[in-house]
Write a structure and sequence with these properties.
heterodimer; A: 319 residues; mainly alpha; globular; B: 669 residues; two-stranded antiparallel sheet; 5 strands; 6% strand
Chain lengths: 319, 669
């Protein structure tokens, strides 16, 4: 019983760490990006300051906004919170990991997206509708690619539970699996599209016509905007953790001792920082693509994931 | 009390509700219908939860073939499903019919009431029938009475056309069902289902019976490409009837497929599963792609019924593949997913049709392009419709998500199969399911966003007000059930265990291996989902956030929306339904035959600016153009050829009779 309690406490602590560290990861990304592009960089703490400022600010909402518009930030944030709770960041086999497997995780993202898109349409401006329409189209194309990659992983590990999948990779050691490589590429491309990064969307854009995600949340202000921005930072971190911890779970704590957990935190931080550097390089060398090129991008991600699945079926099980 | 008395009570009460057609008893009609629904819920719930099977013979039917009825857990499950929708419809209908009475003489509603009564009784009897004869009678009662309901508003030529198509296809389907029963009865030596169960069929004849049943019942369920009647007929009927048709009647097609293949034939072959899986995948994708192109709210919902029938069939197909290859537990998982989705679809599609009816009732509009901003004027309808949208888009923690998740879990167990092709194809179909689910979410963002959010696009929408409380109760009931079934999946799966015991001799006991809080379909190590936890977490975050900011934050200021500095925004500047689906239309262009109409009025002169521009796009159905139209032309051409013997002269006809007589005598002798 005591063990149970400790596990739940650890799970809560991990979730808090996850949610608390997400703005830091965003700050790190921005800093690296600025250095890479020879610009003066803000401090890594800047996202915290921005969030704190937004939380304090007055709320200005459009005159015809409905209750749905005001409820959406909370729904979006709680979906991301749940997703963050379910993902092993520093330790596997925590009780919150059983709340959701990978498919439920995709469901949480879909829930957040659904409400954000509705909020975009609530005011009745063209931008909101445009953002909603584009976001839902891109999501529709990203979801099969994502699930195909997930299927490849879960077929290998015989589980869709993230803890179990990571445990499987840890147990079997570093075997060069072509299916994993394909799935990794597929999931990374989906992650880029889903978190609204270049080349699919530009998180820093200020031109409404090129916006996708930003167009939907254009009308948000104050604490609503803070919750949505924070949720966006958590989402970026979720995808980063998914990629690094599924494909390189080494360092993650398998028992709940101080040393193991400390190592887990350090490993997670190092891996995430590295992953973000790769993302920044990718974002710096690529230009944003036209919206109707995105289906090709995501189609390629799907094909990669499909190849991963087929190589698994053909090569790795000897069927 | 005997359980069958409850079922008889449901039948008699629903028939009795026809009394509402007669002026002195007008008020009695809907309470009787509601009581019939409650009786069906009670009988079905008893049979399902109590795991009771009762059989009886009714003093009806032919002298040598009395009607057999049987209430087992499977029939009980479907009885329960119909009953819930009938209760909702009976709450909803009184206020809704007042809208229909508008501009008609009082007596004209009598056919609607009588046909509704027969329709509901027919559906009950389909579930209860235990011999082919009673089944076919019930099936025809259901089909013909629903035809009357489809053409109820026969002033519209489109409704008459829809009704004819429906009647035609219902009878082609009935013919296939009759032939399927014929095969079974031929081997079983009797028309009772008991005789058919005992029949020893060769695998070939079993497949023939299965395929005939699939065509016949698939025609009713709306499997692509047998779906052509569905998007025409469902929107044509009054909305509570649409809810019953889409929620309950097409499920009788699923019931038929399950009853014939699992119960009557019994020896499931995995090849059948492939047929169902592929047909289901095609239906799911096709349904959602065509739904996206609709801007008539009820037509959009009708196409989504095709999608959801596809998802149900995918579950059934996976179940058959696993059962046929000797994996009974996984087969049970697929079956549970399919049955769960059947129930879920009944609830949320019923809810959505009732919501569409509420919009229609107050605005007289079904066209999305003329709606908008209803969330402010019809707040409860908007809330319930939102629940339906979230549920059908398969988002946690609502019910649609659970059943689609179970379908995914069943598909992910493909590595258990020995066949390499199947192992590769099943995940592909699951990817298509993911695509369909994501497109469905896009479609419901469109439907809800255009109809309920934004600004009103017409005067009717601007002046709408909330519907009467009876209609709200009906929608609220279904919305509450959508949430309940989404949050407590383990209890639902436990309640389904008598059905799976009956059909495959197994139950999915692993689903609640870690208690009711955790849904673990295969085992806790493989996958788990805790719906109660999710629901509570969302509620807590909302509650804490609301409470915290309520006390501490500054008051909210209302201001104009961002208009880029160009001045006031108006309703015409919003995204329309057509605009919303434009990127999808472009990405999946080959899926439809698109007809675009552009009407532009220009100022005179070469450089004259456009004064007005109207753009309309119409998505034509490929199966209709490439399948139904050629077949129709073929039938007409054949009829014309045969028509030549019809000369109009009595002498020729006498010669025909004589020759026919001679022919028969020659055959007999």
């Amino acid at each position: 019983m005591d063990n149970q309690l400790i596990a739940w406490l650890l799970a809560a602590a991990q979730t808090a760490l996850f949610v608390g560290a997400a703005p830091l990861l965003a700050g790190w990304t921005k800093r690296v990006k600025c250095h890479m592009q020879n610009r003066a960089a803000p401090a890594v703490w800047q996202p915290y300051r921005d969030l704190a400022k937004l939380f304090r600010k007055e709320l200005v909402i459009a005159e015809n906004a409905s209750w749905l518009f005001r409820a959406t930030p909370y729904v979006v944030f709680s979906a991301m919170l749940l997703a963050a709770a379910a993902i092993p960041l520093v330790a596997v086999d925590l009780p919150t990991g059983a709340i959701a497997d990978v498919i439920v995780l995709v469901g949480f993202f879909a829930l957040a997206r659904f409400f954000t898109a509705l909020a975009g349409m609530d005011i009745g401006t063209a931008f909101g509708g445009m953002g909603a329409s584009r976001e839902m189209t891109i999501a529709a194309l990203a979801e099969p690619a994502m699930l195909m990659a997930v299927f490849t992983l879960s077929m290998t590990a015989a589980s869709t539970n993230l803890s179990a999948a990571m445990g499987y990779v840890l147990d079997t050691g570093l075997v060069l699996r072509p299916s994993f490589l394909f799935a990794l590429l597929g999931i990374a491309m989906v992650a880029v599209a889903e978190t609204g990064r270049i080349p699919v969307d530009n998180p820093a854009t200020h031109l409404e016509l090129t916006m996708i995600h930003e167009a939907m949340v254009l009308e948000y202000s104050g604490r609503h905007l803070a919750l949505i921005e924070w949720a966006g930072q958590i989402k970026l971190m979720i995808y980063a953790v998914l990629v690094v911890n599924i494909f390189w779970p080494w360092g993650i704590a398998r028992e709940f001792t101080m040393e193991a957990l400390g190592l887990g935190v350090a490993a997670a931080a190092a891996k995430l920082m590295l992953a973000m550097v790769i993302l920044v390089v990718w974002e710096t060398v690529l230009a944003k693509m036209r919206i109707f090129r995105v289906p090709e991008f995501l189609g390629f991600a799907f094909v990669l994931s499909l190849l991963g699945m087929l190589t698994h079926v053909v090569l790795e099980t000897g069927g | 009390m005997h359980i069958l008395f409850l079922a008889y009570a449901a039948l008699i009460l629903s028939l009795g509700s026809a009394l509402g057609a007669f002026a002195p008893l007008r008020r009695a009609g809907f309470p009787l219908l509601g009581a019939a629904g409650l009786a069906a819920v009670a009988a079905g719930g008893w049979a399902l939860l109590g795991n009771v099977t009762a059989v009886a013979t009714l003093p009806l039917g032919l002298p040598w073939l009395a009607w057999h009825v049987r209430l087992d857990p499977l029939a009980g499950f479907f009885l329960l499903l119909i009953g819930v929708l009938v209760v909702a419809a009976s709450l909803y209908a009184p206020a809704y019919q007042r809208g229909l009475e508008h501009g008609r003489s009082v007596g004209t509603l009598a056919p609607l009431r009588i046909a509704t009564a027969v329709f509901v009784a027919g559906m009950y009897l389909v579930a209860l029938a235990d011999d082919a004869y009673a089944f076919m009678i019930a099936w025809e009662l259901m089909s013909v009475s629903s035809y009357v309901l489809v053409v109820f508003e026969h002033e519209e030529p489109a409704n008459r056309r829809a009704g004819f198509l429906y009647l035609l296809m219902a009878h082609v389907g009935a013919l296939a069902i009759l032939l399927a029963f014929g095969v079974l009865a031929g081997f079983g030596g009797g028309f009772t289902f008991d005789a058919m169960r005992a029949a020893a069929l060769s695998p070939l004849w079993a497949t023939v019976a299965f395929l005939l049943a699939l065509v016949g019942f698939g025609m009713k369920a709306g499997i692509v490409p047998l779906h052509a009647w569905l998007p025409e007929a469902h929107p044509a009927a009054p909305s509570h009837i649409s809810a019953l048709m889409s929620g309950a009647m097409i499920k009788m097609g699923i019931y038929g497929i399950v009853r014939v293949s699992y119960d009557l034939v019994g020896q499931i072959q995995w090849q059948w599963g492939i047929v169902l899986l592929l047909a289901g995948t095609a239906s799911a994708l096709f349904g959602v792609l065509y739904a996206l192109m609709q801007h008539d709210l009820k037509r959009l919902l009708a196409y989504h019924s095709i999608e959801n029938i596809g998802i149900i069939l995918m579950g059934l197909g996976l179940s058959m593949i696993f059962l046929g290859t000797g994996h009974p537990v996984l087969g049970t998982l697929g079956l549970v997913a399919a049955l769960y989705h059947t129930l879920n679809h009944a609830l949320f599609k019923g809810l959505l049709f009732l919501g569409a009816g509420a919009v229609l009732h107050r605005t007289h509009e079904r066209d999305l392009e003329r709606l908008g901003g209803l969330i402010g004027r019809m707040p409860f309808t908007a809330l319930f419709f939102l629940v339906g949208c979230v549920a059908i888009s398969a988002l946690p923690p609502f019910n649609g998500f659970v059943s689609e998740w179970l379908t995914f879990q069943a598909a992910l167990q493909a590595p258990a199969l020995a066949n390499g092709v199947l192992r590769a194809v099943i995940p592909l179909t699951a990817a298509v399911l993911a695509l369909a689910a994501a497109l469905a979410a896009a479609c419901f963002v469109k439907a809800y966003g255009v109809a309920f959010l934004g600004r009103a696009r017409s005067r009717h929408a601007e002046r709408a007000r909330e519907v009467p409380s009876g209609m709200l109760w009906a929608m609220g009931l279904l919305a509450g059930l959508c949430l309940l079934l989404g949050v407590l999946p383990t209890l639902v799966i436990e309640a389904l265990s008598p059905v799976t015991h009956l059909l495959v001799g197994q139950s999915l006991s692993s689903a609640s291996a870690r208690g009711w809080l955790w849904l673990t379909p295969v085992s806790p190590q493989v996958a788990s989902y805790s719906a109660p936890f999710v629901a509570v977490a969302i509620a807590v975050v909302y509650g804490v956030g609301y409470w915290y900011f309520k006390r501490r934050a500054k008051p909210v200021r209302r201001a104009y929306a961002w208009d880029c500095g160009f001045g006031a925004l108006n309703a015409r500047m919003q995204y329309t339904s057509t605009a919303f689906s434009q990127p999808i239309r472009r990405v999946f262009a080959p899926a439809w035959k698109l007809e675009e109409h552009v009407e532009a009025a220009r100022e005179p002169g070469v450089l004259g600016r456009a004064r007005s521009l109207h753009y309309r796009v119409h998505a034509l159905d490929w199966t209709w153009l490439k399948g139904y139209v050629p077949i129709g032309a073929l039938v007409l051409a054949a009829a014309r050829r045969i028509g030549r013997i019809q000369t109009g002269s009595i002498h020729t006809y006498l010669v025909y009779s004589f020759v026919t007589l001679l022919l028969f005598l020659w055959i007999i002798s």
